[in-house]
């Protein structure tokens, strides 16, 4: 069994009613450096994310969420968590099966299409 540290991580678990920052995940000490660093960065943002959470329901602008199902940094269940929080905004999701966290490098086509939808909105849309 790998040597692990329990680190707070501000992402949702499977329950869309959980709060931001509530979950602990075990990050193996021998994990790739990028994974460890990303987790440390998220820990530093925990209080900011918790303060932001109650304000998510007031956002009215269209929201697009693109997420890979095999993301090791932000669990795929986070998509349902965010959808449940954006109660005043239209939310469109793009699920990319078997994809990880590095969508800008691995899935440029899907991201470019999604950004194009945002760019096509009139400036007064929000």
Please give the radius of gyration in angstroms: 16 Å
Question: Which percent bin holds the helix content?
Answer: 25-40%
Q: What fraction of residues sit in β-strands?
A: 15-25%
Averaged pLDDT: 75
What is the β-strand count? 4
SSE class: alpha+beta
Overall geometry: globular
Give start-end ranges of low-pLDDT stretches. 1-16, 20-25
In total, the number of domains comes to: 1
Order of helices and strands: EEHEHEHH
Count of runs of 4 or more consecutive helical residues: 4
Q: What summary fits the major beta sheet?
A: 2 strands, antiparallel
What is the topology, as strand order, of the major beta sheet?
A: 1-2
Distance between the termini: 50 Å
């Amino acid at each position: 069994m790998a040597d692990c540290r329990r680190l707070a991580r501000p992402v949702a678990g499977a329950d869309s009613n959980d709060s931001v920052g509530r979950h602990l995940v075990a990050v193996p000490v021998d994990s790739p450096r990028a994974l460890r660093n990303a987790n440390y960065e998220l820990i530093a943002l925990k209080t900011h994310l918790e303060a932001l959470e109650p304000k998510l329901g007031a956002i009215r602008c269209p929201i697009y969420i693109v997420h890979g199902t095999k993301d090791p940094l932000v669990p795929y269940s986070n998509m349902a968590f965010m959808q449940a929080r954006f109660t005043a905004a239209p939310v469109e999701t793009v699920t990319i099966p078997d994809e990880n966290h590095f969508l800008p490098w691995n899935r440029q086509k899907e991201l470019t299409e999604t950004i194009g939808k945002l760019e096509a909105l009139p400036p007064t849309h929000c």
